[in-house]
Amino acid sequence: MRWNLDKILQFVDRLRKKGLQPDAFTYSCLLEAAYKERGLYEAMKLLDEIIAEGGKLDLSCYNVLLTGLSKEGRTEEAISFFWNLREKGFYPNVVSYNILLQALCWEGRWNEAYELLAEMYDEDHSPDRFTYSIFGQFTRFPWPSRSCF
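Given the sequence above, the corresponding structure tokens read:
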């Protein structure tokens, strides 16, 4: 999909002028467009602007940025960002865990990945097909069961 951040920002501006407030889905699209077109720094800056303007965000908005941090190999920042979600009033979901698990596995940080998987179980998030595929693409080790944690 081709993104054009300027057009999206113009659209959001028109919405606001008509008295309509963007929703979390709109902000998520905006953040993804900012990341893909201008990079993570601009997306983070846009997030700050949205928050300052009182925009209503949801976890998907933060997952866009978590993905950006992970894809850019900024895993330590991604880990910090992930754990700070709770301070913002959001609790990581399976998608959030998968993003970070993939980053950890990509770097061969198996112990941390398995610890995060244990945390995922502790928070009652069941692994999905994508979770299984993350571990399947990086290792031939048996899949750990819940009883291992």
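The chain is about 65% helix and 0% strand. Try to locate this feature in the token string yourself.
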